[in-house]
């Protein structure tokens, strides 16, 4: 698949890869350079349609070409999502940095409290991530961690709906 040469080719690529972002770990950071390029290209356009975008040339930089390749690879590596099981234990993994945040909701049939997280048989339910933009970049660490807590509540409501074990095991990665 060749690199996009205009915004009309880049736009559907980002739309289609974004559709799989719940299964792709770190998607927001991978796609960020491409999304920024599309946003800058389309800022001059009268409308954000594919027809208008096709007339806007895009020359990808080395960093954007790497992001394109990594985004395609993320689709190949996308994890298979499991369906929530009523008898499984929910596990939330969260992280935030200066650049972005992530929340991974998994389930495990039999939680072993003495075993390391890497040794658990986790099944992915959903993977959420994002980059901080605009004024969010100026937030302090406490505010960025608070963003994760908000996503925890949303993720729990999404994934644990009608789940007997609504009390999740939360692990924050430092």
From TrEMBL:
Transmembrane segments: none annotated. It comes from the Eukaryota. This is RNA-directed DNA polymerase. Gene3D superfamilies: 3.30.70.270. Keywords: Nucleotidyltransferase, RNA-directed DNA polymerase, Transferase. The lineage of its organism: Eukaryota, Sar, Stramenopiles, Oomycota, Peronosporomycetes. Pfam families: RT_RNaseH_2 (PF17919). Residues 61-145 form the Reverse transcriptase/retrotransposon-derived protein RNase H-like domain. The keyword tRNA processing does not apply. It comes from Phytophthora megakarya. One of its GO terms (molecular function) is RNA-directed DNA polymerase activity. The keyword Transferase applies.
């Amino acid at each position: 698949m060749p690199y996009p040469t205009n915004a009309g080719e880049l736009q559907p690529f980002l739309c289609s890869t974004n559709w799989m972002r719940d299964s792709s770990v770190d998607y927001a950071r991978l796609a960020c350079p491409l999304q920024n390029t599309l946003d800058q290209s389309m800022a001059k356009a009268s409308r954000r349609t594919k027809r208008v975008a096709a007339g806007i040339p895009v020359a990808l930089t080395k960093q954007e070409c790497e992001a394109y390749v990594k985004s395609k690879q993320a689709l190949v590596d996308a994890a298979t999502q499991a369906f929530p099981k009523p008898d499984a234990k929910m596990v939330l993994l969260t992280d935030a940095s200066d650049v972005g945040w992530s929340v991974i909701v998994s389930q495990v049939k039999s939680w072993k409290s003495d075993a390391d997280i890497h040794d658990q048989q986790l099944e992915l339910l959903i993977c959420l991530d994002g980059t901080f933009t605009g004024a969010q970049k100026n937030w302090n660490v406490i505010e960025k961690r608070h963003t994760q807590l908000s996503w925890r509540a949303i993720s729990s409501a999404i994934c644990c709906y009608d789940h007997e074990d609504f009390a999740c095991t939360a692990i924050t990665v430092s």
